[in-house]
Design goal:
There is one protein chain. By secondary structure, this protein is an alpha/beta fold. It has one domain: Alpha-Beta Barrel (TIM Barrel). Helix content is about 40%, strand content about 15%. The protein has helices at about 25-40, 65-75, 90-105, 120-125, 130-150, 185-195, 205-225, 240-260, 295-310, 330-340, and strands at about 10-15, 45-50, 80, 85, 110-115, 150-155, 160-165, 180, 195-200, 230-235, 295, 315-320. The strands form two sheets. The protein has an eight-stranded parallel barrel with strand order 1-2-3-5-8-9-10-12, surrounded by eight helices. A two-stranded antiparallel ribbon has the order 6-7. The longest helix has 21 residues, at about 240-260.
Length: about 350
C-alpha cells in the first residue's frame, strides 16, 4: 500500500467562470485571458476550464475552444479541462483537437474528463444518459490509440470505424495527461485503471476525499502506476479572514445553495443534509474545516498544507470567481496576493 500522502511540491491552479451574470461573453473571454495571464505571472501552475450546457445565461460552452485561445495568450501555465464531458463528443474529433491545442501550447495541455451528470446535456446532444460510463471508457481507450498508432480500426459497443489516421500527434509524448474526475468509488477505480490522474470533485468533503484517495493509491499500486491527484476547491484570500469572508461568502453561499437545490449533496457524504429543509438554511459552516481555501494568507497556507500532507494532492485548483462575482478587478488583486503570500510558503515548513 502507498503510505506517502505528503506531496513533495504542491502546485496551484485557477478555474475561471465560463458564465458571468449580466456580462457579455466577449468581455468575459477577455477577462478570463487576463486572469490566466495574471495567474501565470504570480506563480500559479495551471488554468482549468469547465463545461456546461443548457444554461439560462450565455455561457462559454466549449472548453477546448477556450483552451486554444488561452494557449495563444500564455507562455508557461498549463491549460486543462476540468472537466470535458466525454460522452457528448466523438473521441476521434477530440483526439485531433487536443493534439492541436497541445502543439499550440508547446506541450502544456491536460485533458480532464468526466462522464457527465445533467440529464439536459445528454438530451440536447441525443446521447442516452444510461450509456455515459461505457461511452467514457471507450472514449479513453480510443484516445490513446489515436495518439499512439498511425492507422487503426475500432469496433466497440458505441463507436465503430475503419482505418482511421490521426495527424498530427500531440506535442507531449506519448500524449497529454488524461485525468478523470468523479466523486464515487467506481469513478476512483476508473481513474486508477484508465487515466493518468484523479481529479477530486469540489463538493467532496475533505475526509471523504482522503479516504477515496487512499483507495485510488492502492489501485494504482496494484497496476504498478504512479498515482496523481488534483483537487478543485472554491477559495479566496484577503489580508484578514474577516475581509475574505465578507468579500467571498455571499458568492460562495449563492453557489452552494444552488447546488443544494439541484440535489448535489447526499446524506452519504454530507450527513447534515437531513437537517436542511430549504436552501437558505445552508451555511458554509456545514462544510467544516479545509473544505474551502479561504481566509488570510496564513489560513490559506494552513488549509493547503492539510491537503498536501493528509491527502497528498499534487495540485489545488481554486475557483476564485463565481457566476456572480467577485468582480474581475478584485480577482486580479487576489491572484497577486495569493501568488505572493501563499504559494511560496506552502511546504516550506516541511
Amino acid at each position: 500500500m502507498n503510505e506517502e500522502p505528503d506531496a513533495a511540491m504542491l502546485k496551484f491552479g485557477i478555474m475561471p467562470p465560463i458564465a458571468q451574470r449580466g456580462m457579455g461573453l466577449d468581455r468575459l473571454l477577455s477577462e478570463i485571458v487576463e486572469e490566466a495571464q495574471q495567474a501565470e505571472a504570480f506563480g500559479f501552475s495551471s488554468v482549468f476550464l469547465g463545461e456546461h450546457h443548457q444554461q439560462k445565461a450565455d455561457c462559454l460552452t466549449s472548453p477546448l475552444l477556450l483552451a486554444m485561445a488561452l494557449a495563444t495568450q500564455t507562455k508557461r501555465i498549463q491549460i486543462g479541462t476540468g472537466v470535458l464531458i466525454a460522452p457528448l463528443y466523438h473521441p476521434v474529433h477530440v483526439a485531433e483537437d487536443v493534439a492541436l491545442i497541445d502543439i499550440a501550447s508547446g506541450g502544456r495541455f491536460i485533458l480532464g474528463l468526466g462522464a457527465g451528470v445533467e440529464p439536459a446535456d445528454f438530451t440536447a446532444f441525443d446521447v442516452p444518459r444510461a450509456e455515459r460510463i461505457a461511452r467514457t471508457e471507450e472514449f479513453i481507450a480510443i484516445l490513446r490509440r489515436c495518439w499512439a498508432e498511425n492507422v487503426f480500426s475500432y469496433h466497440g459497443a458505441h463507436y465503430h470505424f475503419e482505418n482511421v489516421r490521426i495527424n498530427p500527434k500531440p506535442f507531449q509524448k506519448p500524449h497529454p495527461p488524461v485525468w478523470l474526475g468523479g466523486s464515487v468509488e467506481a469513478a476512483v477505480a476508473r481513474a486508477a485503471h484508465l487515466a493518468d490522474g484523479w481529479y477530486i470533485d469540489p463538493n467532496l468533503p475533505p475526509l471523504v476525499a482522503k479516504q477515496m484517495t487512499g483507495r485510488y493509491r492502492d489501485l494504482c499500486d496494484q497496476r504498478g502506476v504512479t498515482p496523481h491527484v488534483a483537487v478543485m476547491r472554491e477559495g479566496w484570500v484577503a489580508e484578514t479572514k474577516e475581509q475574505a469572508l465578507a468579500e467571498y461568502k455571499p458568492h460562495l453561499l449563492s453557489l452552494y445553495r444552488h447546488y443544494w437545490s439541484l440535489g448535489h449533496f447526499t446524506e452519504r457524504h454530507h450527513p447534515w443534509v437531513k437537517e436542511i429543509e430549504s436552501a437558505d438554511q445552508l451555511t458554509i459552516e456545514h462544510f467544516g474545516p479545509n473544505h474551502f481555501i479561504i481566509g488570510s494568507p496564513e489560513d490559506c497556507i494552513r488549509q493547503a498544507e492539510w491537503w498536501r500532507k493528509e491527502v497528498g494532492v499534487e495540485q489545488i485548483i481554486i475557483c476564485f470567481r463565481q457566476h456572480n462575482g467577485p468582480a474581475h478587478e478584485r480577482v486580479m488583486e487576489t491572484l497577486r496576493l495569493f501568488g505572493e503570500a501563499v504559494i511560496p510558503y506552502v511546504g516550506r515548513a516541511g
